[in-house]
Every structure is written in C-alpha cells, then in structure tokens.
Amino acid sequence: MTSGGLVHPQALRGQWYRWWRPLVGLSVVVGFGALLVGLALVAVIVGVVLEATGVIGIPGLATVDDAWFASPVGMLVNNLFLALGIPVALLATWAQRSRPGRVSSVTGRLRWPLVLGSAALALLLLGVLSFGVDLVIDAVAPGPLEGWELDPEPAWLGLSVVILLTTPLQAAGEEYFFRGWLSQAIGSWCRSRWLAILLPMVVSATLFALAHGTQSGWLFADRLIFGLLASVLVWRTGGLECAIGLHVVNNLLAFGWAIASGTMAESLLITEVPAVDAAISIGSTVVTAGVVLLWARRRRPQTEVPA
Hints:
Blueprint lengths: L5 E2 L13 H32 L13 H4 L2 H12 L1 H11 L16 H29 L15 H32 L5 H18 L6 H21 L3 H21 L2 H5 L6 H24 L5 E2 L2
Antiparallel strand pairs: 1-2
C-alpha cells in the first residue's frame, strides 16, 4: 500500500529535515565507534595485565587468534558487537531529529509478521536450494558427498546456543546499520525519488561487502548481490523486516553447517569460494528474495511515509 509520500530511503526528508542533519547522525556513529574501540582496548590491556601478573587467567585473551573467534566466547563477542548496529542506528536517527522507529519501517515500528513470515519462507527455500543443489552436484561429481561429512566442532553445544540466541541480533544489527541508517542518511540528501532509491542501494551494498574484509571476486559478488537484494526488499516493503528475516536465516544456515562440519574458523575467515559455490549461493538468494518479496507484497504493506 502506498500513500504518495516518501519511500524508506527518503524517510528522513520530513518536516525537520536539514541538509546537515545526516552529518549529525554520522558524528554519533563515529563517536560511538571510537568509544567502543577505546573500551575494547582498555579491556584487553587490563585483561592481559591481570593474566600476566597471575591475578586472573583469561585463556586466549593475550593471543586472540582464529580459534578464539570460532569459540563460543569469541562468537558471542563478535555477534554482540555487530548487534550494536541496532542501537547505533536508532540513536543516530534520533540525533537527526526524526522518530527512531522510522529506521525500522515507514510505519515507525518493526512489523513482526513480516519478519517471521519472511524468515520461515527463507528457511524453507534457502535450505532446499542451497543444500539441495549442492547435494545434487556432489552426487554426480567424482567423490559423491565428499563435502557432506559430519565432523562437529568440539564446542558444538556452546556454539549452537550462542548462535541461536545472538545471530538474529547480529544479522539485524547489520541490516539496521547498512540498509537502515546508512541508506536513509544517503537517501535524505537526494531530492529525486529514484536517486534516493538507487544511490543508497549501491553504496550500502558495496560497503556491506567490503566490510567483510579480504575476499575474492566471486565472494565479493555474492555479498554485493545479497546487499542489493536486501535493499530491494526494504524499498518494496517499506521496512527492514524481510531483509532481516532473509539475513538471519542465511547466517543461521551457514553457521549451523559450519558447526556440523567442524569448519567454523574457516567459515568466519573465508576469503574465497569456487565460482560454482558462489553461483549456487547467488542463485539461491535471488530466488528466495524474489519469493519473499512476492509474499510480502501480497500482504500490502505500507511502503511510504505519508506526506
């Protein structure tokens, strides 16, 4: 349902809009990030000193490595850090003199039926497409099922609990930051409706992909296309809900298989994928996002801020 108003990326161009307000939001984001980095450095220094003096032992703190990031504690810290994208986006939006809930959707709130429905669809489709196609390829290729051997992580139970409880927050944090505040900050500078849709879409997807660090061209393309599709979902549904549902399920399936196959460290620090794996991932995401969008549009969600 539309009302002839402003689409989600332009939602901050309301009564109180001034060209400099996105810069205020940016200062909040930068300041919050600097504070977190400072606190993290202080915590590490204090922990290392306490461990070195024998006051208290914190295993792995002095030598944070790949194995630490793949441990339950490392995953918990990583997920909670990324989940901070939610309060940062809300605070930055408030600092721009706009309703914080406007970053969630054009209605000013998160619409849970869209979140849960899109997640259920994504779970079914991504599970069948990603694993099903890969299973067929493995079955017809030399050494069938070679990549499907189970070898669970030693700390599989702790990892499973952490991932189930915090990965939804981590995925939502990334959506709130990239498809929420960042897209709206860029879109608010655009008078043209279509420029406000396309420019934030490209910029946020590119920065989202780059934020994952060193990566091959195929892996970058996979993440870039995911970001673009998430932006399309946000635009066409008027909120972050379907993008969050898709992102949560994508990460839960990836981490779930990494736990089952004993490849958590490799999954977290992956830098390249074969072209066929990237193609399967991209194709599965395109089909899933398309079905989720069709389902969501049939529910006739509000997609614009009333003028």
